[in-house]
């Protein structure tokens, strides 16, 4: 499958089966993140892989309104970035998230990008809430969480004919 076809078929999956994510697939997803481009090749990210169901349940309350897909997920990858090491850590971590999202889709693993940065969990930020449980250093900032599981639903691929080409401006 070529990359454009993977992108056409990639959808955010919020419902998962009880089937585990295969270890070799998880490793490929992590490798895709680690291979990501970053400014000045600093790679400021740290990925925290969570498989523990109690921790996933805790993380499902990391944002106002909750993110129930983490309760059903077989695992999640919490992506943090070292804000002291890289001024564009947000962009770098976003590229890593996107690469992992695409790799998951190419392997038939469902995933959902759960925004953490600039979000709140009741009286504290989502970052503070997640840090309390996962104990990552203060200089590392939360970008997002990628939930992973085997899809309980089949979503249709995007239709290339329906892309909004009005969002493209060509200067010749």
From TrEMBL:
Residues 8-60, 64-149 form the Nitroreductase domain. InterPro entries: Nitroreductase, Nitroreductase-like, Nitroreductase/BluB. It holds the Pfam family Nitroreductase. One of its GO terms (molecular function) is oxidoreductase activity. Transmembrane segments: none annotated. This is Nitroreductase family protein. It comes from [Clostridium] hylemonae DSM 15053.
């Amino acid at each position: 499958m070529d990359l454009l076809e993977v992108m056409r078929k990639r959808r955010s999956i919020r419902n998962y089966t009880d089937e585990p994510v295969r270890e070799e697939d998880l490793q490929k997803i992590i490798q895709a993140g680690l291979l990501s481009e970053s400014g000045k090749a600093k790679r400021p990210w740290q990925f925290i892989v969570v498989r523990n169901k109690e921790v996933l349940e805790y993380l499902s309350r990391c944002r106002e309104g909750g993110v129930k897909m983490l309760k059903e997920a077989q695992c999640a990858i919490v992506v943090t970035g070292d804000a002291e090491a890289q001024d564009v850590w947000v962009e770098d971590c976003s590229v890593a998230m996107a690469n992992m999202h695409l790799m998951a889709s190419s392997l038939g693993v469902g995933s959902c990008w759960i925004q953490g940065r600039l979000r709140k969990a009741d009286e504290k930020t989502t970052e503070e809430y997640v840090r309390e449980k996962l104990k990552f250093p203060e200089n590392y900032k939360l970008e997002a969480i990628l939930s992973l599981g085997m899809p309980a639903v089949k979503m249709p691929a995007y239709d290339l004919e329906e892309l909004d080409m009005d969002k493209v401006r060509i200067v010749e």
